[in-house]
Amino acid sequence: MNTNVSEKDLSSIMVIFGGTGDLTHRKLMPAFYNLVHDNLLPKHFAIVCVGRREKSSEEYRREVLDSLKRFSRNKIEDQKWKRLEQVVFYENFDFTGLEGYHRLKKRLNELDDIFGTKGNRAYYLAVAPEYFETIVQRLDESGLARSVGSWNRLVIEKPFGKDLATARSLNESLLKVYREDEIFRIDHYLGKDMIQNIMVLRFSNFMFEQLWNSKYIDNIQISLLEKEGVGSRGGYYENSGAIRDMLQSHILQILSLVAMEPPVDLTTDAIRNEKLKVIRAIEEFTPEFLRKNVVLGQYGAGYIDGRPVPAYRDEERVAKDSMTETFVALKLHINNFRWAGTPFYIRTGKSLAKSSAEIVIQMKSLPNILYFRERYTQIPNLLVIRIQPNVGVSLRFNTKDFKSHNNIVQQNMDFSHENSSQGNTPEAYERLILDVLRGDSTLFSRWDEVEASWKIADRIIEYRERNSFDFPNYNAGTTGPVKAFELLARDGREWWSL
Ligand code: BG6
Fold this sequence. Notes:
498 residues, alpha/beta, Rossmann fold, Dihydrodipicolinate Reductase, domain 2, 2 domains, eight-stranded mixed β-sheet, six-stranded parallel β-sheet, 18 strands, globular, binds 6-O-phosphono-beta-D-glucopyranose
């Protein structure tokens, strides 16, 4: 993985389709501002945001400033905003017609002259997925997708397809215009600091790597839990659900990093090859296995932090009889020599009691002799990798109680990333934007990984579609469906948080 920003020439223009959208305002613009703040924005750089609404660049910049005040992790300072403001431009046109693309081309050439951006281009598709193919086609037809003597890249947000068939067809269209190494498929979880840290923790610590297998690990739990409901995204979420929205992408990516073999080196393809093998080694889901080991849920009304929260079916643009899942929990096995015998439990859901994303590695227990024979209940050692909030790692172990002298207590050795000496953790998009400009696609999904993930997700989606569920089956603000707890209890285990 490449971490030295200064080693490549990053001079370029990033064109964002969907300039007035939620993602641009909440994530991309704050990321640019924070790059300015940390002195990482390339010297020769411009951002052109394309939207369908009519407005001037001045108006657009005012809106961006408002969003920055709400969503940036660093406070907005005048000088720094000025640095960003002068490189942000707005163009309005209809993505489907060709005319606007010709105008855009002319504008980009002018900006090249002003900013010294050398014809290098990154097109970021932050639009609804139904526009992906059209925009790429128009970029091709207008000659924007190729630049002689400079680089030209495509950044594409999720969802990448809605199943294997649609993902394949989308990919084929993209490959008619761009090479695989020019396509950057975003999975923003890969840009999160602790996700990048998984490989470092595993492959640079003797004590972790030596124990990282089914001989010593009892089970691994991955939980991506959210307090937020679907909010204004009901229209999108109805056609997605937790399986497509979180499991197919973020969860399988995390799983592959946790379970992969050491790559031969740290090159992009070496890492992606090992991740892919994990997804391919997931034990085939039979209908019988799915019936026993998948729990689906949908939230009913409830309270979160004392505020009333509507049932999913009462959210905006959601059907009153919707059968879309807002929660999924699942057990799976990875059929290879390292993991045979160790179950992986994964779960994700919306409108839960708290937001947290973490990986728990539960070590095997000692035999119940000595201390554990009668007096004490054994609590296994846990390694907890906290993705958010409070980014960090903790290791739980047993120790003598200093006060009572005759008790065993659990202690955590805790490392937290968010302390005063480090400042707050950079947001995923800051890292990912720089990686696009550097041409480093290690933290993006390669097509075969996406393909393998859809094969897994499709089986679970088929199972959901063939069966009926008693929704809603958990109240907003709770810990999710009871069955998710029974799933582990049946195996004599428990979820370690929430
Ligand atoms: C997105 C999903 O990919 O990830 C959202 O579409 C989800 O539904 C979000 O809320 C969670 O991301 P984060 O970074 O807030 O944990």
